[in-house]
Amino acid sequence: MLSLFINNNPSTNKIISPLGNQVIVNLNPPILLDEKKKFELRLLNANIVYCMPNVSSNNNTLTYIFQGRTHNIIFDNGLYSLDDINITVGLYTAIGNNGGDGSLIQFEADEATSKIYCFFSQAHVIIDCGAGNSIMPMLGFPASSGQIGGLIIASWIKSAVSAQLNAIQNILIKCDITTGSYTNSQMSNIISVVVPNVGSYSTIIYYPAHPVRCPINVARIDSITFTLVDKNGKDIDMRSNGGTESPEL
Asked: What are the residue boundaries of the structural domains of the chain, listed by start?
């Protein structure tokens, strides 16, 4: 048995993707396998920092209308909890003509249904759910909700659908030298699926009791590539603070 320890810490024999989610390890000398025998690869354990942003350039804006003026709250890229969103909104609305009220717009979760209540402390506050790059669909208010708001003081509206603050439900780990069976028994190079079970910026410790055995499909291994993607096959962004710092190791 040959054991490999792979991380995304740069070194002379590795190529790390800009997002930090892919590692290409060049092997010198290469690993030569006996073509008359069958070989398998297993992922025994993995440590992955849960840092994947749920707010980025395509959903980083909350557009609202108050006292005849349209305001756009722009969120920095990052991994936001509902409290984080409330803090950002409150800091903006607390300033002068933006409303002068830190509780002008507040979001609260219905833990039983995963829906969100949007509270308005003043009358005639309108949120445009269909505005460009809106954060509202993530909170359960799709563009089809149109403009929502409170016509009276201390009013509220419940989201049409459940919120989706957890952008990553599954982390798929791929390896280019194997053939796995994680996609409904179809041939793929997915060697494991990791489900985030920790809070933001904590480390997911994955230690499967029964690691899946994935057949190796090459006899000469000059390099080996590991890639982390989401359930849709999209590259995961491992950079801290939504891309402003180096990738998490």
From this structure: 14-52+168-242, 61-158
